[in-house]
Specification:
This protein is an alpha+beta fold and 182 residues long. It has four helices and eight strands; from the N terminus they run βαββαβαββββα. The chain is globular.
């Protein structure tokens, strides 16, 4: 089975620095196969048989702590999970000079549509959708500072998500599909 491990808060703003080559080795040493990293922000595609996503997450968090001395949260999603998320993103959503569009991958503990009730969503500015495993958000760049969703930073929910822009999410999906063909 093909998975993505999404690490929260590494190599951002000079904090929690982890070399991707060493991270790849760490994953391989604990039994992950066909390991591929994508950009420096903690996106690791791999295959594994026999472990649940919860077991993989715990196992990888322990390996990162052992190898790098850091407590890093790892969200694990299968190719099926990511396919569902990618298919829910409108084709028109981009992350470019005019539009900001993000995928907020949810911790399992808050992965429910009711999470939307705890967000500040301005319907005339924000487009927000729940899909199992993630919250999808898009806003015109000119309205980012007016967005209710921009106020998520520092909240309890923010501490239980890891964010990737839609361009990155689509590339991760492409890499997972390629890994699936190996």
């Amino acid at each position: 089975m093909i998975y993505i491990a999404l690490l929260r808060g590494i190599n951002v703003g000079g904090k929690n620095k982890i070399d991707m080559k060493l991270l790849k080795q760490s994953f391989e040493q604990v039994g992950m196969n066909d390991v591929v990293t994508y950009i420096n922000t903690g996106n690791i595609i791999f295959s594994n048989k026999g472990k649940s996503k919860t077991e993989l997450s715990r196992h990888l968090e322990e390996a990162i702590h052992h190898d790098f001395g850091m407590q890093i949260k790892v969200v694990v999603r299968s190719l099926d999970d990511v396919t569902r998320i990618i298919n829910a993103i409108p084709d028109s959503w981009k992350n470019d000079k005019d539009m900001k569009s993000d995928v907020m991958f949810l911790w399992d503990e808050i992965d429910d549509e009711s999470v939307l009730e705890n967000l500040v969503i301005k319907p005339n500015i924000d487009t927000v959708k729940y899909v199992p495993g993630a919250i999808l958000w898009s806003v015109d760049k000119k309205n980012v500072t007016k967005s209710g969703m921009s106020k998520i930073i520092g909240t309890k929910i923010y501490k239980q998500i890891t964010v990737r822009n839609v361009n990155t999410a689509r590339k991760i999906y492409e890499l997972m599909q390629a890994n699936n063909r190996l």
